[in-house]
Fold this sequence. Notes:
This protein has about 80 residues and is an all-beta fold. It is about 0% helix and about 50% strand. It has a single domain (about 1-80), classed as CATH 2.40.50.100. The protein has strands at about 1-5, 15-20, 30, 35-40, 45-50, 55-60, 65-70, 70-80. A four-stranded antiparallel sheet has the order 1-8-6-3, with no helix packed on it. A four-stranded antiparallel sheet has the order 5-4-2-7, with no helix packed on it. Strand 4 and strand 5 (about 45-50) form a beta hairpin.
Amino acid sequence: MAYEVRLPNLGDEVTKATVQFWHLEEGDSAQEGDDLVEMATDKAVFNVPSPVNGMIKEIVADEGDTVEVGGLLAIIEEQT
């Protein structure tokens, strides 16, 4: 089953963030809680963790891309 990783809500005043660095690449395995991607806003730098165990099927947002809250970052093929 494919799971969409989206940019979470960052608070009332923050509507977007920029992809700084992907910790994993397409085809890599991720465990739930592993850092997937480092994001930056004008106020903070933070990591988005993997919500599931699985393989990174597709990275949708490249390093340097700006993503709106709720925007698609990656697709993980869930593994149990």
